[in-house]
Each structure stands twice: as structure tokens, then as C-alpha cells.
Fold:
Amino acid sequence: MEYNKINYGGKIKFHRLDKKPIKQIWLFKWLIHILSLIVMKPKTKIEKIGMDGIKAPYVLLSNHHAFADFEVNSLATYPARVSNIATLEGHYRRAWLLGLCGCVPKRKFTTDPYLLKQCEIILNEHKSVLSIYPEARYSPIGTTAIIPDSYGALLKRLQKPVVVLLHRGNYLRNPAWGWRRSRKVKTLSTMKLILTERDLAKKSPEEIMEILRRELTYNEYEYQKEHNIIIDAPYRAEGLHHVLYKCPHCLKEEMTSKGEKLICPACQKEWELTPLGEIKALNGETEFNSPPEWFEWERKMVKDEIVNQGYFFESSVDVYSLPNTNKFIPLGKATLTHKEKSGFTISGRYNNEDFIISRPVAGMYGVHIEFDYCYIRPEPCIQISTSNDTFVCFPEKKNVVMKLLFATEELYKIEQAERAERRRARKEAKEINE
Ligand SMILES: [Zn+2]
Structure:
């Protein structure tokens, strides 16, 4: 049996990721702009810092909260042409249309040998804005996600001005865990030139990364407090348990939510998400004042579990694959496991043949999760991609996808630290021998 291969019986055409990007068609540029003006202009403010005289081509890096980010990006970059590096599933049943809009599809959290060339074409041939969301997914709790170190070298190589567009408020309005019902929130996006071509030539990839991480730092709940944004929608906490899945009182991972409340059914403790975005226990002590504090505590608990107890996850899952943008193919039931070193494994059987999909820890700094998936069914899922296919898994176990994301990130960090330690030891041994 060959790993990472499904027996489709020769009937499937895989989506090609090596295609040359299309220069954004003016008609689509206008249509997107007009649509963004209607939808986003009344709700958002865009401020610009150091942008005088900055014209395309440049690299635009944005944080990612919700679909509205694309609309604000269109307003902020007008009148330049823009090409977005976007997830392949976003091209589902409309690949031709997004292609004409200049979008370049990618499979998330995989190594893509065509990306650099495509970025160069967008900047140097099309003279367009190259728009990338380095966090690669919507923020689960309104704070910055891991940004891979490789961006330092990529930006240095591209040699074009780097602009950051930092959105604030889009998460508060449409959080990934409750995106179907909007909250009333005025948003603010700041567009800032952070690196000129001269800066890129002088600075090392590490220095570039330091600037990038600093400029892409945000916390939506701090923004809410600073701007006194009151969110009194009666459904404001509904879905938050997908992210805050672990009870800080009894440590069970069975949290649920209703209206403005988070509830632990195991110990009956309840918390309110206040209109100002704070956490307040309704009985007993308030363990954390804000959702990001609770979130980071969960991350620490997962890390402790990996280090002290040995981490292992297994669940039966329903799997759907997306070899191209036409159709999600149901592959039936399979077993998803996640553990140290070997990372993710999906084992199942399709078309009378067993399959094993494997993504070791070393290649994955993150993983894509959804809490309410719009394309297949409105439930939490985890997506594991290989270089030519994507597998959407709906776990039978509940309240698990956020923990899987924490474990992916923490396992990767540990693996990277071990690798650095091995490099250091080898270098030391070599020096002693010399
Ligand atoms: Zn509890």
C-alpha cells in the first residue's frame, strides 16, 4: 500500500497547484471594489501610516479574522490590482472565477515548491499587490497565531516593500466559532509600510521576522476594552466552548455554551461573557478575566500533557477528500490518530483498498480546523492536507478540534527545539574534533 494515496480508480483529476497566476481582470477588480464599498465602507475605518508614494507592486500581509478581511483589503489597496494567496477549499466550485480575480490556490500547511515562482510573477510581471495571510486561517480567539520563520527568507528574496494591514474588530463582529450571526462592531484597519527594499537588503531573515511578528501582534479583547465596544447580543457566547473547551474548575473537556454563558455540564460551573468581552464566573471564583487568558492556559495544559504524560489522540472520523475544487468525496469512516513524532495518521478503506494518510510532526507548524463548516456539514472538523489532496475529518469525539490544533503547534515547537539542540551538539562535537 502506498502512503498518502487514495484509490480513486483513475477517475479523478487533481487540481494543479503549479499553474501560472492570472493577472487580475480589471472588471473583477471593479466589481470586488464596488461590492466591498457597499458591504464594508459604512462599518470600517482604514488608517494609513507611511504609505505616501507607495504603489504596487508590494507585499501585503494581513491578520485573518473573517471573510470581511478580503473586502477591507480591496478597499485599502484600491486602485491597485491584487492577487490573494488563498486556500484551495475557498475555490470550491468557483475556481475559474477566483482565478480571474487573481487568486492563487494553496493546500494549507504543506510545502509548496511553486509558491515562490508564483509570488515573483505576481510582483514582477503583473506589478500587482501580493496579498498573503501568514496566519493561514481565521484566528480562533482574536490573538496572533504562529507565523512560520520561513517568511523572513521569503520577503528578503522577493525584494519588494512590505506593508502590513492589521484588522481590528472583524473577529469581534464574526468570530470563527460563531460566524453565522454578526455582532454590531465598528472596525479599524491600519495599513503600514514596515519594510522598504533597502531595509530588506540590509536585514537578516531573523531581523525581518522580528519586525513582522511585532507588527502583526493584536488582541481583539484589548481592542474591545480600549474602544469601549459593547457587544450585548444575547447570543454573544454561543459557540465559544469550541475554543474554550476545558473547564478550569474540574479540568473536564466537556464545555458547552448558551446565549451569553459558558457552561461546564460536568461540575455545573457557569461563566458569563460580559458585553465588554470579559469572563465573569457566575458561581465561585473567576479563574481568567479574558478569553485569551483561558485559551493560553489550555495551551499550557496541552504542552504539560505532552511533556509529562505522553500525548495520544484517537477517534473514529467521517472523512471527505477534496482532490480538486469540484466535489468533496465521501471516503466513509476512518480512524484519526495524533501522536508525538509520527503526527497525524488517517487510516481507512475506500474503493476496496486500504489507505493511510500520514503527516509527521516535522512538516506541520499548524493545522486547519473549523467549528461550523459551511461546505459539508455545520460541525467541527479538522483538515489535513498532502501535496495533492485534502482530507476533511469530522471526529466522533466532541470538543476535540481546538485541542488538536494546540497539540499540533506544541509538538512542532518541541520538535524544532530538539532539532536545534541536535544541530548545536553536532557543531560542538565538530569544534572539539578540530
Ligand atoms: Zn467543570
Notes: The longest helix spans residues 401-433. The chain has three domains: 26-226, 240-308, 311-403. The CA atoms of residues 59 and 350 lie 42 Å apart. The mean pLDDT is 94.
